[in-house]
Prior knowledge:
64% of the residues lie in helices and 0% in strands. The chain has 299 residues and is mainly alpha-helical. Helix 4 (134-157) packs across helix 5 (167-182) and helix 4 (134-157) runs antiparallel to helix 6.
Amino acid sequence: MNMLSSVSTEPETINTPTPAGHEITPRDRRFGRDADFNPDKYWQNGDPVATAFYNCLSLTFPRGEAFFIESVKEFRDRTPAKLQKEIRAFVQQEVIHSREHLALNRRVEENGYDTSRIEQRITESLNMTKDRPKIANLAATMILEHFTAIMAQQFLANPRHWQDSDPETADLWRWHALEEIEHKGVAYDTWLYATRDWSRWQRWKVKALMMLVITRNFWGNRWNDSLDLLAQDGLTGWRVKLRLLKFLLVAPGIARAIIIPWCKFFLPGFHPWNEDDRHLIQRAESDYEAALTGRPSTA
């Protein structure tokens, strides 16, 4: 059987640990639109290294999330009604995320950065997916959604990531993070349903091999893109690379912090909702509302 082209079409139910009654709520929020909004070039803690990493990550989102949307929508009409509803909400959230990161990316360009090389690489990578089986693109989406979810968990759980950062831009990332956690099971449940006729070994083998390839590409591209932006500020050489490595692995160490959640992906019976972190969504919402009203958070 060709594992990347054989997909069942009959609507059935799906057994998933996604919490019963869990709702995915698109929040149509806008950031950085005020006329007096003028953050520092190094909006992330005044640190060019940290700012470069998050700027290059943001540059991937508009095209990347469009890819996620199309990959999941390919299977939507063949899934159970509950999952179809979740996919529609997932799509709405991702569309809004893309809009807000486009605005952030415009600010990156306005600060004098040439992003054409990064954008060209993203375009070339996505062009390679056009002739692949739809189920392979869904697998890639499911894996990258796990990446965004485990990073989002750190962004909300550890305030150190946004310490002394531009408040409006930090709010954008926290808002994005809470919605990534909220819909973290959608692509995975779609994958489970689309491959329900596969054996557990077949499903695990495909997702494990793809995770290894995508992990190498994800971190390799983020590394090179960050160095590209830093070089445009005249920051080059081994000391800059050491600073970037320290940022990723030591303080605040986002790459180090997600190692264990990344490893859990390979466990038998893995599902994103094996860890229920909805309390982070509630806390982030409470903090956001408190900031708008000027009241202390009660979370």
